[in-house]
Amino acid sequence: MQTSITNSATRYGWGAILLHWLIALIFIGQFGLGFVMVRLTSQRTAFELIQLHKSFGFLLLGLVLLRIAWRLGNATPALPRSVGTLERRAAPLAHLALYAFQLALPLSGWALVSVSMLEIPSLPFNLFVMPNLPLAESDGAESFWAAAHWYLAYAGMTLVALHVAAALRHHFQLRDGVLTRMVTPSSNSE
Question: Is the pTM here over 0.85, yes or no?
Answer without folding.
Answer: yes
